[in-house]
Amino acid sequence: MFLVEGNKTIRELKDSPYSVEELYTAGEIMPDVQADFSIQISEQELKKISFLQHPKDSVAVCRIPESTEIPDCEFNIILDGLQDPGNFGTIIRLADWFGIEQIVCSEDTVDLYNPKVIQASMGSFARVNVVYTSLPEYLQNSVNTNVGTDMMGKNIYKEDFPAKMNLIMGNEGNGMRPETEALLHRTISIPRFGKSRATESLNVSIATGIILGEIFSR
């Protein structure tokens, strides 16, 4: 089980693979949310069960699907050891915005059902297929071109992108693993325009957004 907080996000689960088992709300019971069990509670009780410092109106207890398939997609975001739940949730939201249906994660990437991931995704987790697997095995067998980020990679504003692509983003502090790098077909980079060298790199979710914006602008 995992928690989803806020009426807006809870309502977005209606046409998703997730079922609402229990609904606890400090407001009116939502007739449009199908839950096995619904109850009104006080705001004080809501604070006790919420992960948020300032709880919203409702908390839903949802069931995690038993299994998730990894279909062939022409564009996948690949996450190699991402650890920050806020970054992960933001990347899920970016995938949803750009119409990317699938994110493939290394087995040690932060848990999709971490409350901070769910909150940061703003409901997009319900529309993007997120799967965990052995990345070397997956990348070896994928028909897509494996494209990774590297400071010495080709300028994204001058590079042509393949029609079928795996965009690989690495760990916040260490980048991608050597065994993942060994499977890259291309490397790309976001050029620095500022003169200051104090900023050594970009936040991984910001970098993902910049790269996706450039790819889809074509």
Describe the protein's architecture and organization:
The protein has 218 residues and is α/β, with parallel strands linked by helices. The chain has two domains: 2-63, 60s Ribosomal Protein L30, Chain: A (2-Layer Sandwich), CATH 3.30.1330.30; 75-217, Alpha/beta knot. The chain contains seven helices and ten strands. The protein has helices at 7-11, 43-49, 85-98, 115-121, 135-141, 178-181, 204-217; strands at residues 2-5, 19-25, 35-40, 58-63, 75-80, 102-106, 129-133, 145-155, 165-170, 186-189. The strands form two sheets. It has a six-stranded parallel β-sheet with strand order 7-6-5-9-8-10. A four-stranded mixed β-sheet has the order 1-4-2-3. Helix 3 packs parallel to helix 7 (204-217). The termini are far apart.
